[in-house]
Amino acid sequence: MADWNNQSPIYLQLADRLSQNLLDGQPPEGAAMPSVRVLAAEFALNPLTVNRALQAMVDAGLLESRRGLGMFVLPQASERLRASERERFLQTEWPQLVAKLERLGISAADLTWPKESA
C-alpha cells in the first residue's frame, strides 16, 4: 500500500509515481499501462482516482487512450518527461538545495559523486 501526503491531490501523486516508473522504462514506450483495476488494487485507490491520474498523464503527453484497448505509453514519453523533470529540478529544487548547502557550510569540495557502475 502506498503512502500519500496532504501536499497535493492523490491523483497527482499517483500520476507522479507512474511517471517515475516511465522514467525507469516501466512500462516501455509503446506498451500498455496496467489497467485501471490493476492500478486501483495495487495502490488501494478508488478507480476514479486512478482514471484522473491517467488522464493527467494523457494531458501531459505521456500516454494515449486507445478506445477499447486501454492506455499506452507514447513514443518519446520518457524523453519528454526527463526534460520537464530536469527543468523543474533546475528551476525549483536546485536553488533550494544550493541555499541549504550554503547554510550548512558545505562546499563542492565536500561533496562526492557516486561512482558509475560498470
What layout of secondary structure does this protein have?
Layout: H1 10-23, H2 36-43, H3 47-59, E1 63-66, E2 70-73, H4 77-104
Antiparallel strand pairs: 1-2
Helix pairs in contact: 1-3, 2-3
CATH class: Mainly Alpha
Number of beta strands: 2
Q: What is the percentage of strand-forming residues?
A: 5-15%
- Termini Cα gap: 34 Å
What is the count of distinct domains? 1
Q: Give the class from helix and strand content and strand pairing.
A: mainly alpha
Reported by name, the CATH topology is Arc Repressor Mutant, subunit A
CATH homologous superfamily caption:
Winged helix-like DNA-binding domain superfamily/Winged helix DNA-binding domain
Q: Quick check: average pLDDT?
A: 93
Number of helical segments with 4 or more residues? 4
Report on this structure.
This protein is mainly alpha-helical and 118 residues long. The protein has a single domain, classed as Winged helix-like DNA-binding domain superfamily/Winged helix DNA-binding domain (Arc Repressor Mutant, subunit A), CATH 1.10.10.10. The chain is built from four helices and two strands. The chain has helices spanning 10-23, 36-43, 47-59, 77-104, and strands at residues 63-66, 70-73. Helix 1 packs across helix 3 (47-59) and helix 2 packs across helix 3 (47-59). The longest helix has 28 residues, at 77-104. The two termini are 34 Å apart. The mean pLDDT is 93. Residues 8-76 form the HTH gntR-type domain. Keywords: DNA-binding, Transcription, Transcription regulation. It holds the Pfam family GntR.
